[in-house]
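Hey team,

Sharing the Carboxymuconolactone decarboxylase family protein run so nobody has to redo it. Sequence (294 residues) first:
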Amino acid sequence: MKDTDSRREFLKTSAKAVAAAVAFGGFGTSLFASNLKAVNTSSKGENMSTLTPQAKANLEKFFGTSKLAQEDLEFFTNYANFAFDEVFAHSQLEEKERLLLILAALVAIPAKEEFETMLKAALNVKVSPIAIKEVIYQATPYVGMGKVADILSLTNKVFKQRGIKLPLAKQGRTTKENRYEKGLQAQVEIFGEGMRSASDKAANEKKHIIEFLSSNCFGDYYTRGGLELKFRELITFVYLISMGGAEPQVKAHIQGNLNMGNDRAKLIAVVTALIPYIGYPRSLNALSAIDEIS
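Structure output:
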């Protein structure tokens, strides 16, 4: 009997923990009031339970409502004011670009529930389904299929719910015979002519990996349609800073972005936009790398 009671108590505690996690991660369902009594977020004075006009406008644009649920009202209002007002004011990015960059970060973390919420927001403001899929596909050589597969499955579910016909139009631009050369050319455009000799300089036991980078990472992904090369290099920067632990690659792709015309101000704007999603430690690491390279 004691074992049974203990198990029941454990399950109750676990259920509460899961509910708390969903309340934070399930931004779209728990942030906003649904069947709960809607909360009036206006008051005579500014306080932690008052949405700013800009935050309110952005919430309504992206999610169709700014009526917040009651359980964590102060927390969510404070978060919304920061993420959808202050951060927007200090990161001058085009609206659809911002959402694609956020989605790239959420793939890399990975954060499935928040990805679903921001995916729906992106579709609400007419972000191209092809562009969304390309952001997911290109994450594969950086974060691995283990993360991408779950996000891709989730995305297909949402697309079907929205009546988006699958599969989308093909975006591949290479063949088995030319993917290496096309990928190498993309590397040269981003990093310079020195990339042409990278394979020759590699030790024999590592040469195949250098060739993989050209044919698979760049040939299979960077050459695809749906996104411009300049933006593909920018989302690679986002993957790397969002997952953490890839500082040498972050620095290399900062230089690649600078070469492509994504300047220091642009990179700092991107980091600023991602702070609510990736947190301060990884954001500060990214800023340190930008300082070092630029």
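The domain at 178-293 is CATH 1.20.1290.10 (AhpD-like).

Ping me if you want the raw files.
A.
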